[in-house]
Write a structure and sequence with these properties.
Shape: globular
Low-confidence stretches: none
Order of helices and strands: HHEHEEHEEHEE
Structural class: alpha+beta
Largest sheet: 5 strands, mixed
Distance between the termini: 38 Å
Helix content: 40-55%
Strand order of the largest sheet: 2-4-5-7-6
Length: about 190
C-alpha cells in the first residue's frame, strides 16, 4: 500500500519526463498485478482452511446480477451471449465464493473468446455451465493448476480456474471441462 501510494504521487508529478513516466507506470502495473496475485493466493488459503460460512443461495439471481455487471465486457468484444437460466435455483454455499466462481468462469470465457465470438451460459437445478467458442482443446492436466496460463496475451494471473476448483471442492460441487464442436465447456455439477 505504501509503494502504491508513493507511485501514485510520483505519477502525478508534472516534472516527470515521458521516459520516467513510462517507467513509473510499468512499476505501477507490476505492483497491481502482484497485489492481485497476493489477494488470490490469500483467498485460496482461506478456502482451503474452510473459513467461509454456507447458506441457501438463489443461484439464478446471483448469476443474473453478475451478467448485468459484466455486460460491458461482452460489448467490448462484440460477443454474442445466449442464456438458458432456470428460475428459482437454490443451492447451499457461500454467496461471496459463489460470486467469485461465476465471475471467474465468465471472465475466463470472455478473455478467451475472440472478437465477435459467442458465449452460452446455462443454469439448471443441477448444473451451471459456461461455454465459449474456441479453436483448440485446453490441456486438461494443467487446467485447474495454479499459475497455469493458456494465452500469452492476457493479464490473468493463472489462478482463476484454481480458485474455481477450490470453491467447488469447498461447496461439494464438481467442475469438469470438455471441448466439443470448437467450443470450450466448463460444467459445475451442483
Amino acid at each position: 500500500a505504501i509503494l502504491k501510494n508513493k507511485l501514485d504521487i510520483l505519477l502525478q508529478n508534472q516534472d516527470l519526463t515521458e521516459k520516467q513516466y513510462q517507467i513509473a507506470e510499468e512499476m505501477n502495473r507490476a505492483l497491481s498485478r502482484s497485489s492481485r496475485i497476493n489477494k488470490n493466493l490469500l483467498l485460496l488459503a482461506k478456502i482451503e482452511n474452510n473459513q467461509f460460512e454456507n447458506s441457501e443461495i438463489h443461484l439464478d439471481e446471483v448469476l443474473n446480477q453478475s451478467l448485468e455487471i459484466l455486460q460491458e465486457h461482452f460489448e467490448q468484444k462484440n460477443i454474442s451471449v445466449n442464456t438458458e437460466i432456470s428460475d428459482n435455483v437454490k443451492v447451499n454455499g457461500n454467496i461471496g465464493l459463489t460470486e467469485v466462481l461465476i465471475n471467474n468462469l465468465i471472465l475466463n470465457a470472455i478473455r478467451h473468446t475472440s472478437i465477435n465470438g459467442s458465449i452460452l451460459i446455462r443454469l439448471s437445478q443441477s448444473e451451471f455451465e459456461v461455454s465459449n467458442s474456441g479453436t483448440d482443446k485446453l490441456n486438461g492436466d494443467l487446467l485447474f493448476k495454479r499459475f497455469s496460463r493458456f494465452s500469452k496475451d492476457n493479464n490473468g494471473s493463472g489462478l482463476g480456474l484454481a480458485i474455481v476448483k477450490e470453491i467447488c471442492k469447498s461447496q461439494n460441487w464438481t467442475i469438469d471441462y470438455r471441448f466439443e464442436n470448437n467450443t470450450h465447456i466448463f460444467s459445475v455439477k451442483l
